[in-house]
Amino acid sequence: MKQSQMLIPTLKENPADAECVSHRLLIKAGFIRQNASGIYSYLPLGYKVLRKIEAIVREEMERAGCLELLMPAIQPAELWHETGRWDIYGPELMRLQDRHGRDFALGATHEEIITSLVRDELTTYKKLPMTLYQIQTKYRDERRPRFGLLRGREFIMKDAYSFHADEASLDERYKKMYEAYTNVFTRCGLDFRAVIADSGAMGGKDTHEFMALAAVGEDTIAYSDSSDYAANIEMAEVTFIPKASDEAMLPLDEGQAKQDGQALIHVQVFKDNEDQLVAVLYAAGDEVNDIKVKNALNATLLEAAPEAMNWSQNDILTHFDNVTILADNGIKNIVNGVIEASGKTLHFNVNAARDLSNVQFADLRMIKEGDPSPDGKGTIQFARGIEVGQVFKLGTRYSEAMNATFLDQNGKSQPLLMGCYGIGVSRTLSAVAEQHSDENGLCWPTALAPFAVHIMPINMKNDEQKTLAEKLYQELGHQYDVLLDDRNERAGVKFADSDLIGCPIRVTVGKKASEQIVEVKVRRTGESMELSVDEVAAFIEGHLS
Amino acid sequence: MKQSQMLIPTLKENPADAECVSHRLLIKAGFIRQNASGIYSYLPLGYKVLRKIEAIVREEMERAGCLELLMPAIQPAELWHETGRWDIYGPELMRLQDRHGRDFALGATHEEIITSLVRDELTTYKKLPMTLYQIQTKYRDERRPRFGLLRGREFIMKDAYSFHADEASLDERYKKMYEAYTNVFTRCGLDFRAVIADSGAMGGKDTHEFMALAAVGEDTIAYSDSSDYAANIEMAEVTFIPKASDEAMLPLDEGQAKQDGQALIHVQVFKDNEDQLVAVLYAAGDEVNDIKVKNALNATLLEAAPEAMNWSQNDILTHFDNVTILADNGIKNIVNGVIEASGKTLHFNVNAARDLSNVQFADLRMIKEGDPSPDGKGTIQFARGIEVGQVFKLGTRYSEAMNATFLDQNGKSQPLLMGCYGIGVSRTLSAVAEQHSDENGLCWPTALAPFAVHIMPINMKNDEQKTLAEKLYQELGHQYDVLLDDRNERAGVKFADSDLIGCPIRVTVGKKASEQIVEVKVRRTGESMELSVDEVAAFIEGHLS
């Protein structure tokens, strides 16, 4: 492609409203343009990258035995009423009426549509399992669209849905999709972790999120420095339990004065969905993890209720029969500890083995950096991540609500077991840009680069340079996507644009064109060398393959 | 692909609501499913065909030097206010509000968005010309969605927009796109005509519509039986003017009795946008063409006003100074004609040369079957057509409204000249299905077929048949998209499904499998023969290439 005929509107200045690296560079390098808050156009360079990601996704989905289809964005409200999500989805779901006043949703996701499609078709175990996917535009009216393509309102997703007769089949598919996702993000050149995630509101079971590591990420990941263990910080199990000290146990509440070095226990109070008060005891310096408390109680709702208790001395362990007391494993072996709440000391010389024998212990705290990894390998570190994919065992949440059943081998009607699997295609584009850049611009991985090679005659008015550049453009064009900067611009402008766009290899045709010598530069490493024209193809092949 | 693992939900019965061949067969053969009125899902087979059409469109656009990009479906109302189309587009434009109450349109077309994108970029003649295109989902809330994908509310279009500094450049691009469209529809196997169309409401100049010929088409085309002349019936020029008879002229209004064989002239009355009355004289048996009258008058609006005149004898040619009188060329040489209006005779012995010398003559009638073709070659025939594409010289309609200007070679600011070019991608799919079927199902052209070869072992429980079928599946799979019907269904069901789906070649593996003999059948012609396994590949290559 000749650059004079392309639309690559690079900017000299940083765009004022860009909030992160990828947002800034994708606009500055002319890959995308904003049309409204959270709504973008992909200009030719951006669209080329997007199509390469789509091709990788498609290849891996086909390899994993998924079938591609395409569902509509406009979805009748009736289907969303069947699952109850018309009412519970909230303002993120964009809605509209047609000319007859009928309600429709703009698809934020496609569980309802796909379930309505298959309930008429997958009616016997003989047709199971089946996994269907689409690459399609999704709509979510984010409260606060930001970071360019990272949190947009109109974006491109690959969403897949699998249907099964039994858990074993769902498990197998989940594993296969997990592997396919690992392949996709690896091929896209992402530094990512598959993290254990919270299945919470979706009502399912197992779920992993694929997180591209990046400081701008909105989620915190706890990962092992020595294994592939990773989890959303809220989901990371704490297995480490401090040992008991060899101090002698002192009598409870005797002495009445806090000693230096005594272990401190804090109390946090919650109210569950049945208004039952819950007091959680945990080691000072730790942080209670609401999700773990909720799971320990099997509660559907949990609210902090710090004002609900009127503390006085010596009361938590003895005077509150109507309060459920839970304790974090971190104080399981505590010796002569002190319980404090709301700034008051409640008990002295608390010994878990003696005084907390009736209390339910569980893992109730947030994991911390430095904790041992739950898989026994290495130490926990924190990182920020951008969610680029998720695999999810939905179970029968949708099939039961929408009456999508099949006849099993015994002729018995059963709800379909379902899994769902998403990849943020446009978000992946941004995540790659977020990870692959330097102070001069983007540095695309070869698999996604809009062009593999950028040929740069320094002076198009010089016949030798022009002729040699065009010869290279022809020759290399047989094998690679090549961009030829045939513009009559100053060399400085052309180099700056080239760095900004970030093709993996640049071939500069300058003064030594007359000697058939060019400069070849690797964008990512900055490595650069003079080569004779005959050596260029071999160098590029060696580098890009 | 193994059929047991595909989703091909064929139906035994015709769908009750299907209104035309393509709608019926695409549903019956399991290519599409309706989700709501005018809103469809493309199941795996349908989506495979759609992707093949997209690939052809993309190749021809690239070859014509167009740049691909992707614009959003959600478009801010502000842009539509700039062109005034927010108010004039009517209920076909789907509209919604975001959570902040801001107005958006769901893109029915993208003139506003593309013009807003380029007005910041294409600011000098040096960057012109440029043609940008996208393949994208469009939304139009049709008053009466019907015929399956032919008139849907959510559909897929390729839309291209070109930008130019002068008319010559726009003309050249128009010609190039016309050729590219001819290539696209030819490669898709469509029987089509490029017809001269009405640029009417869009405010542009030249325009051609590409019409796939089909009885279900909503437009009537006038075409020559001996050349490539074709036009929308309203646009077809009538060049034929009957010669004068050699009768002697009789005095006007003398005799007062109609003679057998006298030529009859009718009068039709209109009111224009300035309430001026217009009477059109034309030969009985012809039909007045409103568009031609409007153009002759240079009027923006024209309404029939049959009650506006109070006729009495001998008045039209003498008593109505306040009425504009126009006459169709068909009565230019009339001799001793009779003028009638509203059942009354107004004049006898009208002779154009004598009595209509002050009247403006023009081509004002609809063309008829049997008229000479306006290009002088052959005779006009009528056909019905489905509009699958349109090329259009927009001129400065949008660039002026949206202030999209460039500096010309003299440094003078000028509005960009624009062209726009659309292909109905999903409609093309239906149009091909409409043209390529027989009583048993679809007959896909090779270029669009979801699978090139359908291998059909009659009995999967017969080891010889199964083994031979799988061997052919492997071997032919290296070169073609092959579908293997590995289902344990009755032969009758399998054959019926195969005819319905309509792959170009079927290889049936039956009783002669033990002799390494199979039956090969060409779907379109019904031609069928027994071949030894070794001959199959060569036959298929010969047939499909």
TrEMBL record, chains A, B:
Its EC number is 6.1.1.15. Its main location: cytoplasm. Keywords: Aminoacyl-tRNA synthetase, ATP-binding, Cytoplasm, Ligase, Nucleotide-binding, Protein biosynthesis. GO terms for biological process: prolyl-tRNA aminoacylation. One of its GO terms (cellular component) is cytosol. InterPro entries: aa-tRNA-synt_IIb (IPR002314), aa-tRNA-synth_II (IPR006195), aa-tRNA-synth_II/BPL/LPL (IPR045864), Anticodon-bd (IPR004154), Anticodon-bd_dom_sf (IPR036621), Pro-tRNA-ligase_IIa (IPR002316), Pro-tRNA-synth_IIa_bac-type (IPR004500), Pro-tRNA-Synthase_IIa_type1 (IPR023717). Residues 38-445 form the Aminoacyl-transfer RNA synthetases class-II family profile domain. One of its GO terms (molecular function) is transferase activity. Gene3D superfamilies: Anticodon-binding domain, Bira Bifunctional Protein, Domain 2, YbaK/aminoacyl-tRNA synthetase-associated domain. It is an enzyme of class 6 (ligase). It catalyses: tRNA(Pro) + L-proline + ATP = L-prolyl-tRNA(Pro) + AMP + diphosphate. The keyword Transferase does not apply. It is found in: Cytoplasm. Pfam families: HGTP_anticodon (PF03129), tRNA-synt_2b (PF00587). Homodimer. PANTHER family: MITOCHONDRIAL RIBOSOME PROTEIN L39/PROLYL-TRNA LIGASE FAMILY MEMBER, PROLINE--TRNA LIGASE. Catalyzes the attachment of proline to tRNA(Pro) in a two-step reaction: proline is first activated by ATP to form Pro-AMP and then transferred to the acceptor end of tRNA(Pro). As ProRS can inadvertently accommodate and process non-cognate amino acids such as alanine and cysteine, to avoid such errors it has two additional distinct editing activities against alanine. One activity is designated as 'pretransfer' editing and involves the tRNA(Pro)-independent hydrolysis of activated Ala-AMP. Belongs to the class-II aminoacyl-tRNA synthetase family. ProS type 1 subfamily. Consists of three domains: the N-terminal catalytic domain, the editing domain and the C-terminal anticodon-binding domain. This is Proline--tRNA ligase. The gene is proS.
